[in-house]
Amino acid sequence: MKSLELINIRKEYGDAVAVADMNMQIQRGELVALLGPSGCGKTTTLRMVAGFIAPTEGSVLLDGHNVTELAPYDRNTALVFQSYALFPHMTVAQNVGFGLEMRKVGRSERESQSLEALKRVRLDHLADRYPRQLSGGQQQRVALARGLVLNPAIFLLDEPLSNLDAKLRGEVRSEIRSLQQSLELTTLMVTHDQEEALTMSDRLVLMEAGKVRQAGTAQDLYERPADSFVADFIGRSNVIEGRVEAEGFQTVSGALLPPAAAGKPDARFYSVRPEKIDITRDGPGVEGAVREILYLGAQTEYTVMLGQTPLTVVAATPGPDDALASLRTGEPVRLHWSGDNARLLND
């Protein structure tokens, strides 16, 4: 069943279009991530679902009910803010129970439900502490519990991990995803972090300039990008401009790339992922010259020039007996990849 449906949603600010005619559905228990660069319209979309911004056109449906005209407090949603927005003068338990208090839930029931929500995020032992006495990760989990206690039709996450350091971000990311799956929470999350979107979501909606460029699973967008923007934005890709010829793809600098198995014959761009390219000193493929070698631990990144066309290659770091171990900049190499791993794309 559909928990959320956006129908022809549009938001204009004067002559500027923040979101252009968006249609989207989220099934019950699904986590969908809105991903894209700053200013693409993802946060505006989230706030229209929450009711903080009114759409210029279109409808917002929750569990089949049109809530477009309803105020935020009349919608069965819970929004976890980027800044946590915890009340500093309230204990953890009081923060979690605040929404229930606004709904006129009795004190005894409110305390019981708040404690249960804190148990779900493993913070019931900190119920009497104040936000200032918690770590950033603990504060984020309190914010999650404050939303969970309301039993919302849809959970809204606005850049939920942006205030955490890298190590803690990974831990909390796993906790949120595990909680979402175990409780089957219907969730819409906004993020600009590709790793968060790829690892946490059931589906991605990639936006740019107020429009949806592609929607689908992480594998859909990574393996089958719809256009050059998607290929360049999701993960890393060599996106090269040129034209399709009978014998392959001619780049604007004159290099000839192997034929791609998928795409349109009138495409202007050729895309191949760095990890899909094999690099050797000798063997099949196109010849190039090494411009840069970056040691990354388990992997090594090579920049190889095919004439004036640079290609990035990522491969396992060679062992001491590997022929590539002694490779130096300026030396010739051969690059090879399957046509099944290359795509022809338009703008």
Automatic annotation (TrEMBL):
Chain segments annotated as coiled-coil in the UniProt record: none
NADP is among the record's keywords: no
One of the record's GO molecular function terms: ATP binding
PROSITE patterns cross-referenced by the UniProt entry: ABC_TRANSPORTER_1, ABC_TRANSPORTER_2
Keywords: ATP-binding, Nucleotide-binding, Transport
Annotated Pfam families: ABC_tran, TOBE_2
Domain ABC transporter: 4-234
Similarity comment text for this entry: Belongs to the ABC transporter superfamily.
Name assigned to this protein: ABC transporter ATP-binding protein
Organism: Roseibium algae
